[in-house]
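Why should sequence recovery work at all? Because a backbone constrains its sequence more than one might expect. Tight turns favour small or flexible residues, buried strands favour hydrophobic ones, and helices have their own preferences. The token representation captures these environments compactly. In the example below, the structure is given first.
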């Protein structure tokens, strides 16, 4: 589980097998499951976003909006 420092929206992101991604939002212990179209690209974009001190919440929201990250029904 990759803890995200300095994000007001995202507490942690975890990458699993078969493009599975779990996101923990700030103030919430629950992990939300997603499937990424390309988890390697998301991982690279997340790393770049963190290095540039940009918004991880905006990155995740953009991936969801574009359909590159889809929620898994629990």
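From this structural description, the recovered sequence reads:
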């Amino acid at each position: 589980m990759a803890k995200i420092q300095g994000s007001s929206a995202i507490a942690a992101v975890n990458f699993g097998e078969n493009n599975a991604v779990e996101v923990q939002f700030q103030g919430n212990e629950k992990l939300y499951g997603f499937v990424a179209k390309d988890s390697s690209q998301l991982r690279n974009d997340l790393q770049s976003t963190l290095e540039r001190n940009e918004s991880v919440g905006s990155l995740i929201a953009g991936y969801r909006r574009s359909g590159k990250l889809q929620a898994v029904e629990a």
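A few observations help interpret the result. The radius of gyration is 11 Å.
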